Amino acid sequence: MTELTLVRHGQAGATPDNYDELSSLGHQQARHLGHWLLSHQREFSTLVVGRMRRQRETMQAICEVYAQAGRTLPAVEVLPGLDEYRFADMLQIFASNHPEHPELALVRACPTDRRRWVALLRTTLAAWSAGTLAGVSESYAEFQLRTRAALSEIEARLPQGPVLAVSSGGVMGQISQRVLGFDDATFIDVNLSFMNTSLCEYRLTQGGLKLACLNALPHLAAPEQRGMVTAV
User: Is residue 146 part of a domain?
Assistant: First the structure.
């Protein structure tokens, strides 16, 4: 039996314009995760990451922690199927279709308030998953196919040993949906529940992948680390 450890990227920028890069706190979160993995003697035979900067910077921070301790990790492989959906583009389309939407007005009033983005993103994801968000570059059905193909690629590597994958909340939600079989409305809830640098772990059994933990933050569990726990 071997494991897939799937990680959401660290905290990124405060607005869609700079969201594809880690914030200072995001770098700290990723390093804490690296130290936790190292201290728990986690070894990996495969490292995979999506193409997005926030994903790659998170993986890089983990690798640097291992390198500083003299521990060798395999070369990182880029797996495009782990890329997140283009939420900034989707929000722009939603805004053009619904310019007077009240959730959009709240975001415009204070665009750096991360909490205001969540409600708007939930509404946008609901329209996307229902097929009513016209003009998107990738449909929800296409996103499902892409992320499930990425999962198949990861599963093919698991017999050789544990896999560490860094991605984003939407991809992680799709993988958990694939394993657990919940509906699209639950996917949105799960997607938006993932904390920055949270872990989802799956074990490969004779019956396929089985969930071991979902949205865990063992590396930020100490009381003095509460201020480092973020969702957006």
Answer: no
